[in-house]
Amino acid sequence: MNEIKIFSPATVANVACGFDVLGFCLDSVGDQMVIRKTDKKGIYITKIEGGFNLPYEAELNVAGVSALAMYEAIDVNFGFEIEIYKNIKPGSGIGSSAASAVGSVFGMNELIGKPFNKTQLTKFAIQGEALASKCEHADNLAPALFGGFTLVKSLVPLEILELPSPDAIFATIIHPQIEIKTSEARAILPKEVALSDAITQWANFGSLVHALHTSNYDLIQKSLHDVIVEPHRSKLIPHYNEIKTTALKAGALGCGISGSGPSIFSLCKGLKTANHVKNAIESLYAKTGIEFDMHVSKINVDGVKIID
Ligand code: ADP
């Protein structure tokens, strides 16, 4: 096999109470990529489509950086070409950079007979993701690679836990077309948190993990609260509180900021409710004059996958 075409999915990180450790994978939004062996040694980004102004130099593109990290770890007498067909808007907060970082190493691994497991691939991808976010994290990479809900138990050593995804869970995403710099979203966070807030947060987080294991939708609803990050970051997203109130009123189990924003996710039981939440948010946000995109997706339990 000399060439492979893959779907590299969008992801939601943090998931309310799981700041920096929890994420889940989307099914209906993602990039496509073609990875091809080439006689010339090295990593070459040969095509980027989608209308975004992303760099072709491998060292400046997250897909190239993670590919280079893996290339250094293998001994081959050929190189790789990467084509990126981007659907996930960079900076949207649904793992645009993670999809690229994951796609290149997943595709290369398939072309050389899969010497690396998914945790090892995540390590290469972390280096690509670090280019975009200026710090090492895997909360978008892990769900993009493993699919479903994932918990990054630790970065050093890298330990990723795969959590079950209850069958009826769907996500509704709104992406208001405003720019939030990840650095600004980080800077706004407090350096310390009150013990009482920490207790609430880890109780919610623990119960969310339990709820995923037991497909307990009522408990998912009771657990999807973030008392530490959301009160600060929500100020950066216009009309955040109205969106959340609307989503919950329309039947969402919970609603929160996707990654560092500006996208906002709602988790819903059933496709019908997810679409109802979408329509309610759409009617609300259409009045604001701010451009936005919306997506409804089931949870993608496979993660990145071969499509041709
Ligand atoms: P997101 O959460 O949507 O991934 P980030 O802010 O983390 O957004 O990453 C987007 C940044 O990464 C942008 O500055 C973009 O120019 C840069 N970048 C470099 N290569 C890529 C790529 N292949 N895909 C997406 N973003 C990339």
UniProtKB/TrEMBL annotation:
<keyword id="KW-0808">Transferase</keyword>
<keyword id="KW-0067">ATP-binding</keyword>
<dbReference type="InterPro" id="IPR036554">
    <property type="entry name" value="GHMP_kinase_C_sf"/>
</dbReference>
<dbReference type="InterPro" id="IPR014721">
    <property type="entry name" value="Ribsml_uS5_D2-typ_fold_subgr"/>
</dbReference>
<dbReference type="InterPro" id="IPR000870">
    <property type="entry name" value="Homoserine_kinase"/>
</dbReference>
<keyword id="KW-0963">Cytoplasm</keyword>
<keyword id="KW-0028">Amino-acid biosynthesis</keyword>
<dbReference type="GO" id="GO:0004413">
    <property type="term" value="F:homoserine kinase activity"/>
</dbReference>
<dbReference type="Pfam" id="PF00288">
    <property type="entry name" value="GHMP_kinases_N"/>
</dbReference>
<dbReference type="InterPro" id="IPR020568">
    <property type="entry name" value="Ribosomal_Su5_D2-typ_SF"/>
</dbReference>
<comment type="pathway">
    <text>Amino-acid biosynthesis; L-threonine biosynthesis; L-threonine from L-aspartate: step 4/5.</text>
</comment>
<dbReference type="GO" id="GO:0005737">
    <property type="term" value="C:cytoplasm"/>
</dbReference>
<keyword id="KW-0547">Nucleotide-binding</keyword>
<dbReference type="InterPro" id="IPR013750">
    <property type="entry name" value="GHMP_kinase_C_dom"/>
</dbReference>
<dbReference type="GO" id="GO:0005524">
    <property type="term" value="F:ATP binding"/>
</dbReference>
<dbReference type="InterPro" id="IPR006204">
    <property type="entry name" value="GHMP_kinase_N_dom"/>
</dbReference>
<feature type="domain" description="GHMP kinase N-terminal">
    <location>
        <begin position="69"/>
        <end position="148"/>
    </location>
</feature>
<keyword id="KW-0791">Threonine biosynthesis</keyword>
<dbReference type="GO" id="GO:0009088">
    <property type="term" value="P:threonine biosynthetic process"/>
</dbReference>
<comment type="function">
    <text>Catalyzes the ATP-dependent phosphorylation of L-homoserine to L-homoserine phosphate.</text>
</comment>
<protein>
    <recommendedName>
        <fullName>Homoserine kinase</fullName>
        <ecNumber>2.7.1.39</ecNumber>
    </recommendedName>
</protein>
<feature type="domain" description="GHMP kinase C-terminal">
    <location>
        <begin position="209"/>
        <end position="286"/>
    </location>
</feature>
<keyword id="KW-0418">Kinase</keyword>
<comment type="similarity">
    <text>Belongs to the GHMP kinase family. Homoserine kinase subfamily.</text>
</comment>
<dbReference type="Pfam" id="PF08544">
    <property type="entry name" value="GHMP_kinases_C"/>
</dbReference>
